[in-house]
Structures are given as C-alpha cells and as structure tokens.
Specification:
This protein is an alpha/beta fold and 253 residues long. It is built from 6 helices and 12 strands. The chain has 2 domains: 52-121, membrane protein fhac (Ubiquitin-like (UB roll), Roll); 124-250, Rossmann fold (3-Layer(aba) Sandwich), CATH 3.40.50. Strands 6-5-4-7-8-9-10-11-12 form a 9-stranded mixed β-sheet, covered by helices on one side. Strands 1-3-2 form a 3-stranded mixed β-sheet. The protein is rod-shaped and about 130 Å long.
Amino acid sequence: METPLATIQNEIKQEKKRKKKRRIRAWIKVVAIFLILCLLVVAFVQYDKSKYSRVNLIAIKNNHVLSDDEVLEWSEVSLDERVYLQVGFLIENKINNHPMIEDSKVSINYWLQSVNIQIIEKKFIAYINNNQQTSLLSEEGQLLAITDLSLIADLPLISGYTNEHFEELVKFLTRIEPSIYGSISEMRRKPTSYDETQIEFQMSDGIIITSPLSGLELLTSENYYGVINRLDSDKRCILIDPFTQSMVASVCE
C-alpha cells in the first residue's frame, strides 16, 4: 500500500505529464494554424496572379444617349482589374456624378468575374444646333453634345436661345402635357418689345402657336384641340394670351 508521500509524488508526476501533453497539443495547434495561414497566403497570391481574380466582363444596360465608353470612364472600372476590390455602391456613387445620369445600379458577380451596370439617364426634352454641333437639352437645362442624330428623332428643335435661357425655359416646357409636347416639331424664341419671353411653336400639323412663357399653362390638349377643331382653313396661327386666359386663332402673318 502506497504511503501518503508516494501518492503525492505520483500525482505530481501525472500532472507534469498532463501539462506536457497540453503544451504539445498547444504547439501542434499553433503550427497547424501557421501552416494553414501559409497555405492561404500562397493560395491567395496564386489566385491574385491568375486570370480568375480579374474582371473579364462589364455589361452596361439602358444607356440610350451616353456611350458605353463614357459610362465606363465615369465608373472607373476596366477589364483586368481585380474583381474582389470592386464595390457596387462605390461604383454607383461615381457614375451618379455624371450630369446626364439620374441613377444607377451596379451588381458584381465575383464568381463569374462580371460587373453589371444599369443606368437611368436624365430625360431630354429638345435639341439645338449650334455651330454645326448638335446637343440635347435635359429637363435640368443642361446640354449634351451628340453625334448620333437618331437620338433627336422624337425631339423638337430649339432656336434663338442661349445657355443662360435654358434653365428658365425648361421650367415652363416641362409643364406642357406630353400629348401636346409630342406634337411640337420646333420652338423659336420670338421676343417682343412688350414680352421678352415670347416663344413660337411649330406644330407637326402645321399650326403655329405664339405665347409668352407664362401662357404655356393654357396649352392643354383640351384647349388646343378645342381651338383647331374650329379653325377656318386660312387661320393656321394661334395666339395665347395669359392675361385674358384665351387662345385666339388668326391668319398667319
């Protein structure tokens, strides 16, 4: 039978063995973690050097006026950039700084290494020709130079106005009913001694409308068609008078 002293010594030896085993297990864990980290670093370096870490597709949708190249320039995204560094909302913030873009949505598929950009362009309401340069006019009164003339197919031509007029002009033009606005083929500035804001519309049906800007609220489909349905054949001009709240047909001068 063991003496109390022998029992204590035996317990001490067992505790030392247990501590030694714990230290060995701890070192094994440290080494294992270190090796795993090394493998991860090596794997990441190899991944970073490979083609699978790069953007290989950029898709741009809903851009009718702006070119793909212009949207790409503002997004600051390009092929062969590291796809894992791309962040959707940061790209959106850059794109939305473009003066002709209303909003954008960017989605990134890291597995397929693709960046998808959808934009909403600002609405354009007219175009101008100035020094052989065609430009679109936005609802905010901003101009965008274009070369693709198919973009002006459904827009009226504006003449006689300069940049300082556009901001005030668009405030009134955007109030015109779409059904009437779509029938305007041309609008010309026609200032008079009594009203600097007077404007002349050439309608697609040949009717000419003259009005100060303040009178354009009267240019509704009800008023317009109510007048032209009663027009005599020799009266192809309509004068809008905001003071009397009337639209009067007359013979064109």
